[in-house]
Design goal:
Elements lengths: L3 H21 L8 H10 E6 L4 E3 L7 E7 L2 E6 L5 E7 L4 E2 L1 H6 L6 E4 L3 E7 H8 L3 H27 L2 H15 L5 E3 L4 H7 L4 H13 L3 E4 L2 E4 L2 H10 L5
Antiparallel strand pairs: 1-8, 2-7, 3-6, 3-8, 4-5, 4-7, 9-11, 10-11
């Protein structure tokens, strides 16, 4: 049985983790401590097992989520049941903010890829909070603009680029997210990566094999080393669909 001191210590660790995630997030980064404290007061911790659905396409957008720990996929299902991943959401990223602020239902599904700890923000409580916080309102506008840019890039990748160009863009984007390192940790399965790129596992395997034979990348387990970033960037830029 845990002592009161250990329980207090673990609770303090969780609170520090949440505060750090808020500070590092695009939505809440740069806010003063007193505003962060108010945001923490309206946040509700929710925990999800691997594979558990966070929300379904068409559910009422009564609130949005911030990832404290874990990975969440946002995806659509075609009429024949094929899954198309729209976003892979990691620590510090938000889920469902756009429909919440537009007053509409969720336009996609969200599912925990790993065991997840999320913060849930009720729409009404959050709107009451931001009414008196112009700096937070500006952060929300920046977030919505970033989401629009992400969708624009994704539509361009899926409609205009061949698979190698999509893969190069994805790897370079992951490298930027992970601090512009030469090594990228996928943290998702090859099947999920293929879905994100709008292709099948076989086509993804061929594209990876081609990149390895051209010495653009090296692959070891879930780690991909970007050997020749200049050529990858050229492939991402020029890998247009000519059909």
């Amino acid at each position: 049985m845990l002592s009161k001191e250990k329980i207090f210590y673990r609770k303090a660790q969780r609170m520090n983790k949440i505060r750090n995630i808020l500070i590092q997030s695009q939505l809440f980064g740069g806010l003063p401590d007193e505003h962060l404290a108010e945001i923490e007061r309206i946040a509700v911790s929710r925990h999800y097992a691997k594979g558990q659905v966070v929300f379904h396409d068409g559910d009422e957008g009564i609130g949005f989520y911030l990832v404290v720990a874990g990975i969440v996929n946002v995806y659509k299902l075609s009429p024949d049941g094929k899954e198309q991943i729209l976003h892979i959401v990691r620590e510090g990223d938000t889920i469902g903010a756009v429909p919440v602020f537009s007053g509409k239902s969720f336009p996609a599904n969200a599912r925990a890829v790993t065991k997840c700890h999320l913060l849930f923000f009720n729409r009404d409580a959050f709107i009451r909070l931001i009414t008196h916080q112009p700096s937070l309102t500006m952060n929300i506008l920046a977030l919505l603009a970033a989401r629009l840019r992400e969708f624009t890039v994704q539509v361009e990748n899926l409609s205009l680029k061949e698979i190698p160009g999509r893969l190069a863009s994805c790897l370079l984007g992951l490298a930027r997210e992970q601090g512009n390192r030469d090594r990228v940790e996928l943290n998702i399965s090859k099947l999920q990566l293929a879905s994100l790129l709008g292709t099948g596992p076989e086509s993804l395997s061929r594209a990876l094999g081609s990149m390895k034979s051209r010495k653009l990348i090296e692959e070891k387990g879930s780690t991909i080393r970007l050997v020749n970033r200049a050529l990858l960037e050229e492939l991402a830029e020029k890998g247009k669909n000519t059909r």
